[in-house]
Write a structure and sequence with these properties.
Layout: H1 2-20, H2 23-32, H3 42-81, H4 86-102, H5 115-125, H6 127-144, H7 147-165, H8 169-185, H9 187-195
């Protein structure tokens, strides 16, 4: 019993801590060797990043986030797998990872959308759940032009399919909690969306940097 609690607490600590780490800061240090957090916020950040690093930069950043979010899930499977319940370890680590992504202790509990973490959790819990979550995220972003609505759509789609395909009750509960965390985190964004004040994605390039040039 003591070993079980120790493994659960260790999994929770590692998953939450890893989730709390900023992908931009990790990538700044190990991949790009430039502080990505200073490129701006929202659409400004996206356009500045695209201008400087191009499409391959987005691929590198996405891979960094995938690896960072995948590690705690695999560690959870390994640790809880010692007791023969690797599937529960993945789901529990996914719940703690999502807590860290949405409410990171290293950023005053102000987190990101968690789309990639949501998809990875779904894929490892049950492939069809992850594929559905990915489809929901893509559809939400395409229809509403916002990452927040992509996360909401992904969470709703993931929960709906999990009810139909996940057989183990505890894993289903943890999956539902993961989706609930995403929905709760995005309540302010949904309110802004209803008011029409939510910032939408744009392909327009930010050219404000040109005003910094010396003539």
């Amino acid at each position: 019993m003591i070993l079980n609690w120790f493994l659960l607490l260790l999994t929770a600590f590692l998953a939450y801590t890893t989730g709390s780490l900023s992908t931009r800061r990790v990538a700044s240090r190990f991949l790009f060797h430039r502080d990505l957090t200073k490129l701006g916020k929202g659409n400004v950040w996206i356009s500045n990043f695209r201008r400087i690093f191009g499409p391959l930069g987005f691929v590198k950043l996405a891979l960094a986030e995938i690896v960072k979010d995948l590690l705690p899930l695999l560690i959870g499977a390994l640790l809880i797998g010692f007791r023969g319940r690797a599937d529960i370890g993945i789901a529990f680590a996914g719940y703690c990872l999502m807590l860290g992504r949405l409410w990171p202790v290293f950023n005053r509990f102000r987190g990101c959308h968690g789309c990639i973490a949501l998809i990875l959790c779904g894929l490892l819990i049950e492939p069809s759940v992850g594929v559905t979550a990915a489809a929901g995220v893509i559809a939400g972003i395409w229809i509403f032009k916002t990452l927040s609505m992509g996360a909401v759509a992904g969470a709703l789609a993931m929960a709906a399919v999990a009810v139909m395909v996940v057989e183990k009750q505890l894993i289903l509960i943890l999956t539902a909690l993961i989706c609930l965390l995403v929905l709760l985190h995005h309540i302010p964004a949904m309110r802004r969306m209803l008011r029409g004040t939510e910032e939408k994605l744009s392909r327009k390039e930010d050219i404000s940097y040109k005003f910094d040039e010396k003539f």
